[in-house]
Amino acid sequence: MIDPASVVDRQLAAYNAHDLEAFLATYAEDVHIALHEGRSVQGREEMRDIYAEQFAQRLCRAEVVGRLIERGWVVDHEVAHGLGDEPQRVLVAYRVRDGLIDRVRFLT
What we know:
Helix content: 25-40%
Mean pLDDT: 95
Radius of gyration: 13 Å
Low-confidence stretches: none
Strand content: 35-45%
Oligomer: single chain
Order of helices and strands: HHEEHEEEE
Structural class: alpha+beta
Distance between the termini: 30 Å
Shape: globular
Number of helices: 3
Strand order of the largest sheet: 2-1-6-5-4-3
């Protein structure tokens, strides 16, 4: 069994390195991401469309300042940089199944 935290850590390392292919490889093909205000992203290809431009700018990075892990869920308290004028504090819940992230919920 693959440790869920290690999958999320690989995802974060790829995000910080702006490595789109490595980032997407940590997600299930049919991943569902619940964003703010009822918006969502469905599938790896839709993720590619969203993150390609962001990664090309090479400004984004995130750091984990707290973490909880329970039954396949990893909930990170993150500080995101490069997405606006000021760093943003966010809570993100990742569900890992079969070694891939298949659900993400932004909680703030």
